[in-house]
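Bench notes, afternoon.
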Amino acid sequence: MSTFRSLQLTVFGDKELEAAFNALALGAQKKVLRPALRAGMKLIHRAIVAKVPVDTGALRGAIKLRAGQRSRGRIGLSVFVDKDRLPKRTKSGAKEWFYPAHVELGHLARGKKGATPGSEVRAFIPPRSYMRAGFDEAKEAAVAAIEAEAGRRMEALFLHPKQGAAPDVEG
């Protein structure tokens, strides 16, 4: 079962502001929204990294923020665990397993320390939810950062329309 945590943004405001944003060309809308979304997602990324339990530090270093696949009417960013940055985890005679999921969701251990080899003593290792906890902790701050950055870029776009809301524009 796969679950996704996401932010759904709806822009509310007076009709003139909404009409002005909708009147912008698609490219200009993306120049406003893409950096604003990245500013919010950076906060979520930092919160998730701060919540990761550290053993070797490999999991913390494998959590990345990347832009989603491009499409015409959609802008997407995601925070995920990059499998290529993790060491391969296998037990003798077993197949490879994805340990970030075991940390996030919990799992059954095949035995306790000191138990005889091959025993069926199982202990439940409780979840140490870093993804959900980090997202839930930072989502309000992320929405505020998205609103602030979008407002700053909209203002810059209307003050200097020829520059097209360039990132270096200060109002």
